[in-house]
Amino acid sequence: MSILSSSDQAPVIGSLRLCFYGAGSMAEAVVRGLINQELAEPSRIAMFNRNNADRLAELQSKYNVRVSSAPDDQIGMLRDADVIFLTMKPKDAAEALRKLGGIVKPNQLLVSVVAGLSLHTMEMLLGQKMPIVRTMPNTSSTIGLGATGMSFSAACTESHRHIALTMFEAFGLTTVVEETMLDAVTGLSGSGPAYIYYMMEAMMQAGEELGLSTAASRDLTIQTVLGAAHMVKSTGDMPADLRRKVTSPNGTTQAAIETMNQHEFTEGVIRAIKRAAERAAEMGAEIERSALP
């Protein structure tokens, strides 16, 4: 089956053949999400990487997807695919896209999850205009709670948009943004789970230093973060309003917040997210420079 190029027809997602060029953690998150949400059959998913046969064997064992370390097989996987996911490491992207330029066909859809890699640079490296979806998901897609920012190249039709949105909405929230905003998405939600994990690490350590067991500190921290996120979502209140409601004058929460403020907690988080967004732009620029003759 070929992806339909007309804007008034949408293919059945489950009938599409998918190929993942790169087999890292983000590729696995997307594959697991697609399979868990019963949006794709493992037999219609192909995956390969540059030279890590052990990793491919692991993915084949876990998900029963097709894998290969043979270059000829990999080219065949790419040519047969309706949707090609660009999930390679940013440092390998330029070389990979140059090679893809002689393989891909106009009726294939490319979906990039490479941080910082612009639509313009991808088309330049491919040597042709293509339907390309630039995305920035996060690893929570694995459990159906992902957050994905998405932009489309000019060659994308309504059918292409439908394919991309259906796939990513199956395992989380999807927001279509102008491409210039994708670095901000990378800084905020793409890298965002790691910020929360880092906070949780500190909370668990504090609990243990106060005498709680490792298990108790872990369980209490997890439930606290989970409950706080659900409170924001279910009430519709702003986090600042909820924080004020539980911060009694001269109470324990106020003492903790004042200590955080002394260490510039808010400013530090904002600087960190902005730095992540800047780094995404820098990575894109590095790829573009490497693409120049």
Automatic annotation (TrEMBL):
<dbReference type="Pfam" id="PF14748">
    <property type="entry name" value="P5CR_dimer"/>
</dbReference>
<dbReference type="GO" id="GO:0004735">
    <property type="term" value="F:pyrroline-5-carboxylate reductase activity"/>
</dbReference>
<protein>
    <recommendedName>
        <fullName>Pyrroline-5-carboxylate reductase</fullName>
        <ecNumber>1.5.1.2</ecNumber>
    </recommendedName>
</protein>
<keyword id="KW-0641">Proline biosynthesis</keyword>
<comment type="similarity">
    <text>Belongs to the pyrroline-5-carboxylate reductase family.</text>
</comment>
<dbReference type="Pfam" id="PF03807">
    <property type="entry name" value="F420_oxidored"/>
</dbReference>
<dbReference type="InterPro" id="IPR000304">
    <property type="entry name" value="Pyrroline-COOH_reductase"/>
</dbReference>
<dbReference type="InterPro" id="IPR036291">
    <property type="entry name" value="NAD(P)-bd_dom_sf"/>
</dbReference>
<keyword id="KW-0028">Amino-acid biosynthesis</keyword>
<keyword id="KW-0560">Oxidoreductase</keyword>
<dbReference type="InterPro" id="IPR029036">
    <property type="entry name" value="P5CR_dimer"/>
</dbReference>
<feature type="domain" description="Pyrroline-5-carboxylate reductase dimerisation">
    <location>
        <begin position="179"/>
        <end position="283"/>
    </location>
</feature>
<comment type="pathway">
    <text>Amino-acid biosynthesis; L-proline biosynthesis; L-proline from L-glutamate 5-semialdehyde: step 1/1.</text>
</comment>
<dbReference type="InterPro" id="IPR053790">
    <property type="entry name" value="P5CR-like_CS"/>
</dbReference>
<comment type="function">
    <text>Catalyzes the reduction of 1-pyrroline-5-carboxylate (PCA) to L-proline.</text>
</comment>
<dbReference type="InterPro" id="IPR008927">
    <property type="entry name" value="6-PGluconate_DH-like_C_sf"/>
</dbReference>
<keyword id="KW-0521">NADP</keyword>
<dbReference type="InterPro" id="IPR028939">
    <property type="entry name" value="P5C_Rdtase_cat_N"/>
</dbReference>
<feature type="domain" description="Pyrroline-5-carboxylate reductase catalytic N-terminal">
    <location>
        <begin position="18"/>
        <end position="116"/>
    </location>
</feature>
<keyword id="KW-0963">Cytoplasm</keyword>
